[in-house]
Amino acid sequence: MTTPRLALDRLRKRYRDTVVLDDVSLEVAAGETVVVCGPSGGGKTVLLRLISGTSSPDAGDIRIDGASVLNLGPEERDVGMAFQNFALYPHLTAFENIASPLRAHGLAEAEIKERVGSIAALLRIGHVLGHRPRELSNGQKQRTALARALVRGPGVLLLDDPLRNVDAKLRYEMRLELPRLLGSFGSAVIYVTQDYKEAMALGQRIAVLRGGRFEQVAVPPAIYDRPANVEIARLFGDPTINLYPCRPQAMGGGTIVELFGDRLPLEAAAGGLAGRDVLLGVRAEDVEVTLEPVPGAVPVELDAVTPLNVRAVLYLRTRDGKELLATVAEDEAPRFGRGHRSVWARVTPDRFLMFDPASGARLLPVAA
User: Fold this and answer.
1) Which residues of the chain fall below pLDDT 70?
2) Do 292 and 266 belong to one domain?
């Protein structure tokens, strides 16, 4: 079995009476990018500090290429790091900022020049290497900080929300470029963000960190389609998931649920939930809205239409008074006007998510 490049083993960290990280374990392979995603205060930045060596865990171990690094200082660990605030030396040029970790390791001047030139060309900042940070745009600062983290070819690369302070256009471009770039270096990458779209775009796996624990570690489609609990379902999605308390019932050899003023059939796997209180989730993109009745659709009132990037959000009101969010392609939105009209909505039962109201744990779909 291949030894993971980075292994976190039951890390625990407490600040006074607050447990910030509680038995956190994770393995990251060489060349793999794992995005650690979660709400503010969940322990993401503390986790990076432990790995980088700027803070020490109260318990647990951190191994790089199979060897513990707990007794090594930050400069002795094979770790590179880029921060959301860039953290560039203001008195140094972009070249010198990028070269600083190479100089610290005593590399020859010719090799430093070659490495800095190569990484700068890759990140398209070769033309600003002579500029100081105050002369750089936010995008150029971000790329300079990333180049400094990458130039040494570290075994482990830590990226602390590095795209937060750049403009929307560059953020979109970097979401496209970064997976290829990061994969080419062979580092084990941990990328921290609160942005679920960024997590879905960049991560080969996503580790959801909430309350100091990893609540789910999985590939992006599994996180979205089979969230471990209702809070992850809320975290991943824009607009947020529709959620309704209900109680499935056995009827006619199957299982139904009364929702939207109608009886909707559930998939066979829901049979075990009959008579039990559940929280039913419906993603907005799984709601089909039409201007005319179609089989399986229920009448709803369209209250408003709001643009959202390349899609539009439809705010619907069902016959039993519940709010239902749906999305349509932006070019389809004009068909619905500005709202305040009767339309029809249809949901596909096999796209339903079921959660336990007390614990929040996902009940359906059963498959992991």
Assistant:
1) 1, 366-368
2) yes
